[in-house]
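Re: that chain you flagged

S.,

Sorry for the slow reply, it's been a week of failed gels. I finally had a moment to sit down with the sequence you sent. For the record, here it is as I used it:
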Amino acid sequence: MRLAPDIAIANRLADAAGEVLRRHFRQRLEVEAKADCSPVTVADREAEAAMRAILEADRPQDGIVGEEYGVSGAGAKRFWVLDPIDGTRAFIAGRATFGTLIALVEQGLPVIGVIDQPIAGERWVGQLGEWPGTRLNGVPVRVRDCPGLARAHLATTHPAAFSAAGHAAFHRVARAARDTLLGGDCHNYGLLAAGHLDLVIEEGLKLHDWAALVPVVLGAGGVMTDWRGEPLRVGSSGAVIAAGDRRVHAEVLATLAL
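Prediction finished late last night. Pasting the structure tokens below so you have them in one place:
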């Protein structure tokens, strides 16, 4: 396995972030607003700093793109993408639906992805080029079959995150789906990979929001693209579709009709 040493590093990163987040979870934290009005706490910053320290010591040749501390090693052939808390609002509220996201990107494509939920003790690790490519706590997982959109369980973090046009397009899909669940952040993609959800649609995601999700979904046999059906790579728009069954994905593309 070519990526085995990197997967070992990714697990160490998740362990380090998890140790920080468990210490701060459901504690009274000062909440600051970033430039984009999203919240940030000391937990976000300490968790990313803990992961960066490992990479700087053990992978000094690799670049890093982190939500809280930006880019280091610009121009590196491969780089790590870190989101210490995907779902900071859920973390602040004491809801264990947030996750730490870790990705390794090579030639513009994420090849390793980790979704770690340190409170529930759930860790999805996905990689491209191996089968099974995704494991939950070490056990292989696979998406489930779904014959069509009318039978699909759809999830999204919140429609308020969509643009006006995206909101209208999303609701065309939601009306055709079996039901829609709100909330869940990155946890939704892990549940899709494990065969509990059929579809996740979101818009406006940044690289640190989606990079780790792609290997997890693809490694479990699912499909994840932008809203035009194009593979996600560095520079993608951040409008994403993740589906467990390609039949559902095809219906969603037709329903979005961009």
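What I noticed first: The domain at 149-256 is CATH 3.40.190.80 (D-Maltodextrin-Binding Protein; domain 2).

Talk soon,
D.
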